[in-house]
Design a protein that fits this description.
The structure is a homodimer. Chain A contains seven helices and two strands; from the N terminus they run H-H-H-E-E-H-H-H-H. Chain A is mostly helical. Chain A folds into two domains: 83 residues, Arc Repressor Mutant, subunit A (Orthogonal Bundle); 82 residues. Chain A has a two-stranded antiparallel ribbon with strand order 1-2. In chain A, helix 1 packs across helix 4, helix 2 crosses helix 3 and helix 6 packs antiparallel against helix 7. The model of chain A has no long low-confidence stretch (mean pLDDT 94). Chains A and B meet through helix 1, helix 4, helix 5, helix 6 and helix 7 of A and helix 1, helix 4, helix 5, helix 6 and helix 7 of B. The structure holds a DNA duplex. Chains A, B: InterPro entries: Tscrpt_reg_PadR_C, Tscrpt_reg_PadR_N, WH-like_DNA-bd_sf, WH_DNA-bd_sf. Chains A, B: It comes from Acaryochloris marina (strain MBIC 11017). Chains A, B: It holds the Pfam family PadR.
DNA sequence: GCGTCCATGTAATTCGTTACATGATTCG
DNA sequence: CGAATCATGTAACGAATTACATGGACGC
């Protein structure tokens, strides 16, 4: 259900094709939503049927034509309606926490190695986000209201990565003691 | 797929029935995994077929009999195998971030109200986790290795809530400026 | 020549949610 | 007397994942 709204939100920002949407869900938009291209194409068809979006075929030379989607007035209204409703809070499903919870079943070194790997992964992600921050949101106070909102979604991502990294360090310290 | 391992992990900690599992996924275990009772019963049947767990019917008086599950040796081995593999990192799907991303479509006050509500919700969750911390993990250094691992899953939850609350404050400050 | 990117899709399967169902017991 | 708790399930549906498929363009 909310995948459709995630797509609408992404299209609000910038009209694009299914393929491009999939890449955005993989990249910068990915820290608050993700979806495979199969999900996206299916959902785009439904949204077009409901007339919340319209697709425009853009002929291209040297590569396949693409179908560029943008919101209709109806789509904007529906999106606004959804935003006004209280969100249901979603639980994260972190495999590493499941592994820790059953930590007694394996050798300590296995979990420590996994924690180090996890730490590294999030360190890299943090750097990616911080580059985006520096390049696009150097002076947050001066952004337009809509841009501030978008900046805050990135801030959430940055904060999350910093916090996960700190947790990894805490975990490694406690488990090595 | 990983739901089965989440169940195995929970059973490692304490053998229990489907009903009790559902309650644990709703409570303390819930900050790293969640599942409905329908999912749990279906998965328990599959796990029993595969002989990763065995169920033992425990007659009770004054209430229905319950079927208590515990890991088999095979289950422990499979769990250990899974733990040794690198985890795939899961992306959170936070509706509030989708809403912010499309923030231009609604009146500022709607988003501010949602942020305040979100803030409140996480403040409450934090207090629940901190109570568990005080009651069960007063002196982390003195815990057994397995208990330290479990404590760290709670720590992740506590850290997350603190961070989300700080982010809410940052967001409200930026958007009101 | 091989892999990757562009661009879109179908099919099969598993996972997750919603609704419905039973039946006894305890609490107010 | 009604509601909630204990305990377990089935059925139907919708969402997500995985695998498979096409076919030209471009770089090494």
């Amino acid at each position: 259900m909310s995948l459709s709204y995630a797509i609408l939100a992404t299209l609000t920002d910038l009209a694009c094709s299914g393929y491009e949407l999939a890449k955005r869900f993989d990249g910068s938009v990915g820290h608050f939503w993700s979806a495979s291209h199969q999900q996206i194409y299916r959902e785009l068809n439904r949204l077009e049927e409901r007339q919340w979006i319209t697709g425009e075929v853009i002929p291209q030379t040297g590569r396949p034509d693409k179908k560029c989607y943008h919101l209709t007035e109806m789509g904007k209204v529906e999106m606004a309606k959804w935003i006004a409703q209280p969100s249901k809070s979603s639980r994260t499903k972190e495999e590493i926490l499941v592994k820790l919870f059953a930590g007694d079943l394996v050798e300590p070194e296995i979990l420590l190695a996994e924690l180090r790997r996890y730490h590294q992964e999030h360190e890299q992600q943090l750097q990616i986000y911080q580059q985006i921050e520096q390049q696009h949101f150097a002076d947050p106070e001066k952004l337009s209201w809509g841009a501030k909102c978008q900046y805050l979604t990135l801030r959430q991502g940055i904060r999350y990565e910093i916090d996960v990294i700190a947790w990894c360090k805490e975990a490694l310290t406690l488990l090595r003691a």
